[in-house]
Specification:
alpha/beta, Rossmann fold, Conserved Hypothetical Protein Ylqf, Chain: A, domain 2, 2 domains, six-stranded mixed sheet, 12 helices, elongated
């Protein structure tokens, strides 16, 4: 079982509890490909009943049909859900519009006043969910550190986005213990966990299993020769045969290790990279509960 809760994150939780009274609402950034598994742990416990703007980040990589279903499932009177991609300018404006609505609601007693206080929002997101990129997109400049590894932000910092909104940036909060190993697998598939913390074959097998079940045509489109030679139509009937797919991928790409043997590990890495970066198409790795 993969587990991870660095010491600086426990310190962050204590700091946030101290600041809770000065926070008007929350920005809960999630990965649109795993909207449930990527929710920030303990958030609702620390900030019970605070209004929330849920950002389904990297929406350009997610299955648009399932994203709509997730939005319908997650929205409630105290939380709005916004699909977001830093590459789409309209998404930034959609967020700003929702933030203005929230400011008017939170500070409604100032509706007729000459001055309305800024909206103070605490921004949360698990490691590598794109929190810093989101903040930079909103601020219009490279302000927060950006990295392709989980856990870049290390402290709690206030940022002025504009005259009507301030962000409280926080380190990516993660888990003391995962509810299920399946949750850990999904997080690893989108690289929300450091790669040193999972077994490469286990994660790539899990990804292949999901693709065979839900997106088999995308596999065939990306790897036509591999799909044909590994007979992927029958692979899902026997999980012990998944190694055939990766051996065929290594062979097709001419991945060779020492001794002129197939470098299957490199094939696993290629598959995971293609899945994470959208080369396998827009996909979502979990479905919303049926209401």
């Amino acid at each position: 079982m993969i587990q991870w809760f660095p010491g600086h994150m426990a310190k962050t939780v204590r700091q946030l509890k101290d600041k809770s009274k000065s926070i008007d609402g929350l920005v809960d950034i999630r990965d649109a490909r795993i909207p449930f598994s990527s929710k920030t742990p303990i958030l609702d416990q620390v900030f019970e009943n605070k209004p929330k703007l849920i950002i389904l980040n990297k929406a350009d990589l997610a299955d648009p049909i399932l994203t709509k279903k997730w939005i319908k499932h997650l929205e409630s009177p105290i939380q709005r859900v916004i699909p977001f991609s830093s590459q789409v300018k309209l998404d930034k404006q959609l967020f700003l519009n929702e933030a203005k609505k929230l400011r008017a609601k939170v500070h409604k007693k100032f509706a007729k006043a000459a001055f309305t206080p800024p909206l103070y929002l605490a921004v949360f997101g698990i490691p590598n969910v794109g929190k810093s990129t989101f903040i930079n997109t909103l601020m219009g400049k490279r302000h927060a550190k950006i990295g392709d590894r989980p856990g870049v932000t290390k402290s709690v910092v206030w940022n002025k986005v504009n005259d009507f909104m301030h962000f409280l940036d926080t380190p990516g909060l993660t888990w003391q213990k995962f509810e299920t190993q399946n949750t850990a697998l999904k997080l690893a598939l989108v690289f929300a966990l450091k790669k040193e913390r999972f077994d490469l074959k286990t994660i790539s097998d899990a990804g292949l299993d999901y693709m065979l079940t839900h997106y088999i045509q995308a596999l065939s489109k990306r790897y036509p020769e591999v799909a044909k030679n590994s007979n992927i139509e029958t692979l899902s009937n026997d999980k012990n045969s998944y190694h055939i797919f990766f051996e065929q991928l290594a062979k097709q790409r001419q991945y060779l290790a020492s001794g002129n043997e197939l470098d299957v590990e490199r094939a696993h890495e290629t598959f995971l990279r293609d899945l994470r970066t959208g080369l396998l198409g827009r996909l979502t790795l979990e479905h919303p509960p049926v209401d």
